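Help!! Second protein's tokens look totally different from the first
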Amino acid sequence: MNPPRPAKPESRIALVRRARRINRELAEMYPDAHTELNFSSPLELLVATILSAQTTDKRVNLVTPVLFARYKTAADYAAADREDMEKIIQSTGFYRNKTASLIALGQALCDRYGGEVPGKLKDQVTLPGVGRKTANVVLGNAFGVPGITVDTHFARLARRFGWTTQTDPVKIESDVGALIPRSEWTMLSHRLIWHGRRVCHTRRPACGACGVAHWCPSFGIGPVDPKEAQKLVKEGPFS
């Protein structure tokens, strides 16, 4: 039997309760959820997140050990040889643009912030190659400042869960932030990203193997038979 769908139309109170229930269930499903980018400092995470654009965390993690060994400070990035850096990060794609961003990032950090990554959103988004998504990743995971990371997985699941109808990341961030306590924002981001990578795929979500199907208004857009759905589930880690 299919899980019951939330009543239509759904009241605001019911939406908030359902959103928070899904978050609690995802917390039990993914107790170890975390960013799958490897880093040991705010600068390393910032660089890794910039490199992750249009590629996988796994690919970035193959590149960063060499990169981080060569460039340890913002000043190192500012003074980097363009060709050398391009060779190191080439496999991540768009390597010329990414190299330009990393060199400019190092220069900006040295010129404006004493070579340190600032701990505020309003400052980070002024840096070359850094938007709200990247800044929220760094703030949440390197500074402990709650933030919602709206990547493609998060946006897809937020719409499927009926938490938003928006496609603009800033509007999605606002809509979801109004449903979930601020203290949960960073972990919620990890949970949705993990669930999107493993179960709630873009084309064929594994609805019949989904632990939050009971509270999802989009149940049925993918296979609902448990055995068929289970074949679609991907095992992590993805780093």
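Here's the second one for comparison:
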Amino acid sequence: MSATKSPRARGARPTKARRAPAGARTRALEVVARLGREYPDADTALVHRNPFELLVATILSAQTTDVRVNLTTPALFARFPTAYEVAASSQEELEKVIKPTGFFRTKARALREMSQDLVLRHGGEVPGSMEELVQLRGVGRKTANVVLGVGFGVAGFPVDTHVGRLVRRLKLTTATDPVKVEADICRMVPESEWTNLSLRLILHGRQVCLAGRPRCPKCVLVDICPSSFLGLTPRPGTSRRRAKAAA
């Protein structure tokens, strides 16, 4: 299947409609506009030279920082530059190289199985469709959306912990399941904005809308965010207990 087909055509989101929170669609479009101005050059922080390196780096990024991944991947790719070398590696030698990223046994197994699937099914090349990517062992929708959006320029909306936290604080969705979050946001936002919005939400979540203590006074969305009483500036009449519970 061509990598240029619409995510709708390749089944990138469920079709069952969910009722959006009041004002969510208008708020979502304003979020797109404001974050676009705030982070015009948003991109993944994972250093890569091709879709395979991006796929590997994204798998390694689970439960660790992009900085740690970027410190680990140069040695990894120097020793195992393609899917063929990773597929032929032993579990032990791969674990040794990626150990700094944490959960290295699980990640090493995922990388080996994913690479073996690439070699057997795709001649070692990363496919450019959602259906083919999620059939690779160790690859879920979030990882596939990252690879499609950043590696192939195909619209997708990856939902990581930052994205999920922010869209719920902004009351764009009430869903907690990443697949449902993806579907809700994609129904409200133009397809051309899906990838960039996800990248910008991640940056905003890391720099401003922090998990434990959001920096509301510095937030460009503070006046349209239904949760803006969180963090440093509770709304008048809002108790600390209520603000903490809403977080």
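Reply: Different proteins will give different token patterns, so don't panic. The two ends are 42 Å apart (CA to CA).
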